Amino acid sequence: MFTRYRVKIHFAHRTFSWSNEARGNAAVHCVIIGFAAFDITEKRLFDYEHIKGEPTERKVRNINPYLVPGNDVCLQSISNPICNVPKMQSGSAHAMAVF
């Protein structure tokens, strides 16, 4: 979205807890991201010192895809190790012990 459509994040609420009326009251953690295919000068980033607390607003020049102030960088997915080690086949599945 960032390169193909030139999307820019205008504001973001980083992780916060959402309370609900559901039976058993499931724990729900949310983020809210406001974006558009145009840029604005001043972006707003909302942080939560405590996950159930009130937000603190910061005005920043840019919000990247990781919801932190900074340049728009994205890590590329790679399938080969970056050093001389065996290639991982199934993630952590082989680490599970059978009792």
Plain-language structure description:
This protein has one domain. Strand 3 and strand 4 (55-60) form a beta hairpin. A four-stranded mixed beta sheet has the order 2-1-3-4, with no helix packed on it. Helices cover 0% and strands 32% of the residues. It has strands at 8-18, 28-36, 43-48, 55-60. It has 99 residues and is mainly β. It contains no helices and four strands.
Annotation keywords:
99 residues; mainly beta; 4 strands; flat; four-stranded mixed beta sheet
Write the layout of secondary structure elements.
Blueprint: E1 8-18, E2 28-36, E3 43-48, E4 55-60
Parallel strand pairs: 1-3
Antiparallel strand pairs: 1-2, 3-4
Count of runs of 4 or more consecutive helical residues: 0
Which strand-content bin applies to the residues? 25-35%
Total separate domains: 1
Largest sheet: 4 strands, mixed
Give the N-to-C terminal Cα separation.
Answer: 46 Å
Structural class: mainly beta
Poorly predicted ranges (pLDDT <50, ≥5 residues)?
none
Number of strands: 4
In percent, how helical is the residue content? under 10%
Summarize, please.
The protein has 99 residues and is mainly beta. The chain has strands at 8-18, 28-36, 43-48, 55-60. The mean pLDDT is 85.
